[in-house]
Amino acid sequence: MPFDWADVQGIVVRGNNYPRSWHMFFSFPSEAAGKEFLTWLRPRLSSATAFPPDEKPEPLTYLGLTHNGLRALGTEALLKKVNPAFSLAGVSIHNPFPSEFIVEPEVRSLGDFAPGDVPSTWWNGKFKTEDIHAAVHIYAHSEPVFAQALKDVRSRAASCGVLERNPRGDGQPPLEGCMLADQRKVHFGYVDGVAQPDVDWENEVPGPRKVDRRHFLLGYTGPTSIPSSPSFARTKELFRNSAYVAFRWMSQDVPAFEKFLTDSAPLLAAAYPAAADPRELLAAKLVGRWRSGAPLVAAPLNDDPSLASFDAFRYQGADAQGLLCPFSSHIRASNPRDQPLSDLVRLSNPEVPRLIRRGAVYGSEWRPGVNDDEDRGLFGMFVCASLERQFQQIIRWMNKNDFSDVFNGQSPVPQDPLFGARGSEPQRPPFRIPLPNGQAIDIPLPDKPFVRSRGTAYFLFPGLTTLDRLLLSAT
Ligand code: HEM
Question: In this structure, which residue's CA is closest to atom 35 in ligand 1?
Fold first, then answer.
């Protein structure tokens, strides 16, 4: 069966790179209200064919549904029709939804322990994660289209009786994504979005060096080493071309990050006399790439912006000792590539989990002394076929670098320096930079992580046929 591009929401397959985005949340007070709203929205959703790579139509609109949203839409009745043994309320073998999608994001799996990070403080305290039934994401590049799209969605939601849940307060603009002056960069000054899995969307057997689509799309049969679910044959077909998306609202403390670089850079200077800029080298060591995007394994001591898009590197041959790219750096902890996983970890993770990363920067660029206190950060959207085996697993590895024997003997267990949940450890692990003489520079990290969690919600981005079937099921 040929792959149906028109059935997949475009954002799953392709990044947007639009200068503005709205990220809106809604609750359905009744099945009828939710269905009326989504029936209006359905023809406005952008499939993967809606925007060929060199065109930029607008607006682009995408829909995510939470487990509570699916329940509110009466999905239970549909699933019972498909499989009479099904029970939506509980986790059972007949339930096509995995438990982590049913129970909502929680502290243990995310490491959001710090007082300002815990779920009770999320969404600015304006609503609870369980109140979110749907998210609508709108991308545009011209102001009138952007404003009109917002007006249309809001007025339609209101006329259907669907409630908007706005972390910025009723009547305020929704969460708004933007771009920095250098459009490839995120706050902290790094180019982002370089490394993405090179997915073979069309073929059942992926081409050489391509990533199997079943890591991201539901509803395809495959080996158990690949997460694609659900496994029950009839629900498999019902959810084909849907994907799970973890939406994570992350606030970045840019002044604290830059201060940390300034304060800690002298610790590197003696060990790297050939480095032109120890402060920038430290920034590169934290992430594994220079702020230009160039990876440390290819540009170890000094930046080389000509390598900004270079991603065809591995760690084992080039840097098995972590001398170029520290083991705990953000990109090595979130994708260790060919670095061997420990035997125990390999039992449950035969392959390194992968994520497709979408999202948008929010808040204005930091101007020292001018807008220090403004909130800024990233709306991360992480696409996968299993929230537990991909998104949560990677977060766990970032929070606790214990997935490979290279970390053995380090106590406390190291963490991703950019993001690690340092509050979870009684002792704060330093950031370790291994040196050729067998020693290491251990850089103390501030107690407060540079990135704070302000809300996380799990969505199913339904394939468009899936959505049609949900909407057509009898009320
Ligand atoms: C504010 C928070 C974050 C910032 C500023 C950030 C920044 C970055 C940067 C600069 C890169 C390198 C550029 C690239 O390879 O595209 C990167 C890569 C990556 N990040 Fe993050 N990130 C953040 C949060 C996260 C989270 C929460 C996850 C996981 C759930 C994550 C997973 C990844 C992955 C998988 C890569 C690619 C690694 C590779 O394949 O080499 N990031 N991130």
Answer: 334
